[in-house]
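Handout for the seminar on molecular recognition.
Each group receives one record of this type.
Step one: identify the two inputs.
Step two: read the structure output and locate the region that could contact adenosine-5'-triphosphate.
Step three: write two sentences on what you found, then compare them with the reference statements printed after the record.
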Amino acid sequence: MSQQALLQVKDLRVNFPQGRGKVFQALKGISLDIQPGETVGLVGESGSGKTTVGRVILGLTEATSGDVWFDGENITHASRERRRTLGRDIQVVFQDPYGSLNPARTIGDTLAEPLMNDKSLSRNDIAERVAEVLQQVGMPADTASRYPGMFSGGQRQRIAIARAVIAKPRLIVCDEPVSALDLSVQAQVLNLLKSLQQSMGLAMLFISHDLTVVRHVSHRTVVLYRGDIVEQGDAGQVHERPEHPYTRALLAAAPVPDPLIQRERRAQFDLARQALSGLI
Ligand SMILES: Nc1ncnc2c1ncn2[C@@H]1O[C@H](COP(=O)(O)OP(=O)(O)OP(=O)(O)O)[C@@H](O)[C@H]1O
Ligand SMILES: [Mg+2]
């Protein structure tokens, strides 16, 4: 590879203690890379370990073994202080737009927070940057003086995205960013993420249980099954010509508008499921 990866996850294992000396292996030695400006989709069913990958990258969950490298630096066991400064380069958008914004603070204060450490910025600079980012995410300028309770789920997710991008990070971890939203709003928020990714040259780890959603925003797709990567490749290829039976099963499980196609897909899903028990 000619270019150095922005993020490298190497042979990452995470065990969770289950009591009486037993452990649950949530991640069984996974490796993945994200290039600068690249969106990697991480897909898998509930419990496959997607959020755990994101949390280790963000320093919220401890790796049992293996490493996470960011821009040539091993950040697996970064100090609290280093984590705080890394927050400028690595940002996050969570699933729940209701829980992720402080209800007691104005949107303007919430958005200004990531900029507060930058001593070169005056109050005026910060106010300008807040107005600019609100415009970028398609929110009216008066949003800054209002509180989260005044906005819908989709609008809050736009605000959470604004907070994530305001300090111009290099990597954003998006953990099911549209899963809590209505279908019609999902597409708008996905398009927003995609256009910001392109215009800002952001790298993204885009986590979702829905392969179709992942396909829409990702350059590359990584499929996780019970803590192991079973397939990865070009997003179009993984979506249109999945090689692994588990990926086919995931695809078959995705809802489609046509009931006939849906029925056929479900039948495929059941077959793939049966085949899986013998395979993995
Ligand atoms: N702190 C923890 N302690 C014990 N087990 C945990 C902990 N966090 C996660 N797990 C377990 O690890 C597995 C992977 O969890 P994770 O949240 O990464 O899955 P996921 O793929 O994000 O699922 P979902 O699609 O439901 O969000 C699950 O079986 C979960 O119960
Ligand atoms: Mg999760």
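Reference statements: The chain has a mean pLDDT of 90. The pocket of magnesium ion (ligand 2) is lined by residues 50-51 (CB under 6 Å).
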